[in-house]
Specification:
The structure is a single chain. By secondary structure, this protein is an alpha/beta fold. It has 6 helices and 7 strands. The chain has helices spanning about 15-25, 50, 65-70, 90-95, 125-140, 170-190, and strands at about 1-5, 30-35, 75-80, 110-120, 140-145, 155-160, 165-170. Strands 1, 2, 3, 4, 5, 6 and 7 form a 7-stranded mixed sheet that branches. Helix 1 packs across helix 6. The two termini are about 10 Å apart. It binds flavin mononucleotide (FMN). InterPro entries: Flavoprotein-like_sf, FMN_Rdtase-like_dom, ISF_SsuE-like. GO terms for molecular function: oxidoreductase activity.
């Protein structure tokens, strides 16, 4: 079974580190992380072509590559830095473009977990997690929390950048591991 991590940050920083932390609990699964900063995604301009042609986006900018990876995954961990209390514009753009995947319900029954990291405590991590989980629910995905022992809405972390290093709070790292563990548990249940 395959788990895809999507790093919604504009750089390879604390969000990426937290996805990697969650992946530590997913040994034995095929894993891949993509960073949206490696793509330049256009907005969905509601041309509705995907609605008419069976779910293919006519904008050729690398989106179809991401869509294909999402289709092939059994679980997706979506991570975003908190930007003004919500997800990054780039991640929201991916969410909007993923309308193509709703034409045939390609993401239905895939497992989804969320990661949010901000520079401050109470900086909007919970709202950011809710935005990610709402996207997953609208696709008919199976949403998971970080479950026990931390058990809230996913991984919620605070990161501080010191030169080129990122210091991530212990709670954030712990919730990342709990999320990875929960994804493993649910995938194993599905395998049975
Ligand atoms: C435009 C912008 C808006 C931000 N807004 C918030 C915010 O509302 N709350 C918060 O805690 N941190 C905020 N931050 C800080 C980032 O969420 C934080 O530095 C995060 O760790 C960056 O993740 P990355 O290292 O994966 O890029 C903001 C940063 C930027 C650039």
């Amino acid at each position: 079974m395959k788990v895809l991590g999507i790093n919604g940050s504009h750089r390879k920083g604390s969000t990426l580190l937290l996805i990697e932390e969650a992946f530590k609990e997913l040994e034995g699964f095929e894993t891949e992380i993509i960073s949206l900063s490696d793509y330049v995604l256009e907005y969905c301009k509601i041309c509705n072509a995907c609605k008419r042609n069976g779910g293919i986006c006519i904008v050729k900018d690398g989106y179809e590559e991401i869509a294909q990876k999402m289709k092939e995954a059994d679980a997706i961990i979506v991570g975003s830095p908190v930007y003004f209390g919500s997800v990054t514009g780039m991640l929201k753009t991916l969410f909007d473009r993923s309308r193509t995947l709703r034409v045939n319900w390609d993401l239905k029954d895939k497992v989804c977990g969320a990661i949010a990291v901000g520079a401050t405590k109470h900086g909007g991590q919970e709202h950011t997690l809710q935005v990610i989980l709402s996207w997953a629910l609208i696709h008919g995905m199976i949403v998971v929390s970080d479950s026990d022992p931390t058990s809230h809405f996913g991984c919620a972390a605070v990161a501080k950048q010191v030169d080129d290093e990122f210091e991530i709070d212990e709670w954030g790292l712990k919730t990342a591991r709990s999320l990875g563990k929960r994804i493993r548990e649910v995938l194993e249940l599905m395998k049975k």
